[in-house]
Amino acid sequence: MLSDEMKKxxxxxxxxxxxxxxxxxxxxxxKTATAVIKANEPATLxxxxxxxxxxAHAGLTVQSxxxxxxxxxPGDFILHVTGSNRGILxxxxxxxxxxxxxxxxxxxxxxxxxxxxxxxxxxxxxxxxPGFNLFDKKAAVVAGIWSHRLHLEDAVLIKENHLGxxxxxxxxxxxxxxxxxxxxxxxxxxxNLDELRSALSAGPDMVxxxxxxxxxxxxxxxxxxxxxxxxxxxxxxxIRLSNLAAFAALKPDYVSLGLLTKDARTVDFSLDFLKx
Length: 276
Fold this sequence. Notes:
Layout: H1 4-16, H2 23-26, E1 32-39, E2 43-44, H3 48-57, E3 61-64, E4 71-72, E5 77-84, H4 85-116, E6 121-123, H5 133-142, E7 156-158, H6 160-163, H7 169-180, E8 186-190, H8 193-200, E9 206-210, H9 214-227, E10 232-236, H10 244-248, E11 254-256, H11 259-262, E12 269-273
Parallel strand pairs: 6-11, 7-8, 8-9, 9-10, 10-11
Antiparallel strand pairs: 1-5, 1-12, 2-4, 3-5
Helix pairs in contact: 1-3, 3-4, 4-5, 7-8
């Protein structure tokens, strides 16, 4: 479901392209037409709901042929659009851009999840495109990835740059606990075993082991399971598709990867008018 906030942003995407002032469509002879969007490469589909909304907002009739989360192949029809050819032409690029970006994120996420295995929960970071955060995260969820935080207000995540203003990791966690009074999740990023021990002494909900080597991560996970079994463990930093399986094998609760959004490329979709 699209939230009201997402709908507002989608309309802003259209307005950003000045779709109601399309100088080229304005000189195109107007007629009722039907167009199809099709996939030009294999992908995991995401953004279909957004594309449907964009065309419908312009007064066009849209019929989907797939659903978000489906695997698509070159030549697969994604949706049909019927209505004013001028309206279709004016919305075309915005819809394809949103569909392509979201499908790119979903495709990369599903690839990573396949590498990590079904018993590992992958999570996003906040390395999303400004203004597109909700859509990047929705695309990842479509592919089975945990969004982690949609907004800064959703949880406390004490990172390295926050820690510099506290005497110790334990003090940072205590400050968060006092402020939250048992409310939002408290997570803290640690860079070594000393910081980990300090942090866990104050009882965070989660610890994020940042940029640990594989061997150090293995030691830290074992130490956590033995001394603070109630704390959830997240691994992040320096984890790539090439070493993801090895880190997942350590059985943390979560593995977060910035590359899921940062390195996602736009999937190629095209829109063509049907003859007749």
